[in-house]
Design brief:
There is one protein chain. This protein is about 40% helix and about 20% strand. The protein is of the alpha+beta class. Helix 7 packs across helix 8.
């Protein structure tokens, strides 16, 4: 058995629940897709609601398109934008990571040898580490909204209540593209008007909608 999280919106807030399912071992794409299907079936059995996997292994075309390894922001793959924005005690941001593949950016040795993460820098804006996930969620939402129309996103998001990311390991990471999609759905469905380029407005929205999860 395995346990994985999934995210949804409840009363205007992004929340997370855990679901148990039979795990299929192995690193092949087919095995990972079996796990995705098993997780989705567990959600349907427990909650009676549809789930959309957000990753390159998704069984759904839109789920694959919304992967951070496929989305682009300012013409650059989103994962590279995220990794190249990290500021550490002893270095960074490493802007050359904008020009490599997402896997290379994520595995760059400097991200492990430059000391503690202290902030993020995107454009001229510096982002604190708190609220947790606020920066990652921001660039994700900004990327999705610059790639797809609200109508395209709404069509997919309205058909799904839960969002999953089979590769997400809460023991190794705090950011999940599935959580970001749930937040994106909240932004679209709640229809709260604010300037996405206004840092303080985003932080206030994030605190209210995601909170401490």
């Amino acid at each position: 058995m395995a346990t994985r999280p999934a995210w949804t919106i409840y009363r205007g807030h992004v929340i997370r629940s855990e679901f148990d399912f039979e795990w299929n071992g192995g690193f092949a794409v087919s095995q990972k897709q079996k796990n995705i299907a098993a997780l989705q079936n567990a959600i349907m059995k427990k909650r009676g609601e549809n789930a959309l996997e957000i990753s390159t292994k998704s069984l759904d075309e839109m789920g694959r398109s919304l992967s951070a390894f496929n989305l682009r922001l300012d013409g650059v793959l989103l994962e590279c934008v995220f990794q190249s924005s990290k500021v550490f005690e002893k270095g960074g941001p490493y802007r050359d990571l904008l020009d490599v593949s997402p896997k290379e950016a994520k595995r760059d040795e400097r991200l492990k040898t430059s000391g503690k993460l202290t902030a993020f820098e995107y454009g001229s804006q510096r982002w604190d580490l708190e609220p947790k996930t606020a920066f990652y969620d921001y660039i994700y939402v900004k990327s999705a909204l610059s790639t797809f129309t609200v109508g395209q996103l709404r069509e997919t998001l309205d058909q799904n209540v839960w969002f999953t990311d089979i590769e997400f390991n809460p023991n190794k990471s705090i950011n999940s593209q599935a959580r970001s999609v749930a937040l994106l759905k909240a932004l679209i469905t709640l229809g709260e008007p604010f300037d996405l380029d206004d840092h303080d407005s985003w932080i206030a929205f994030h605190k209210k909608t995601v909170g401490t999860e």
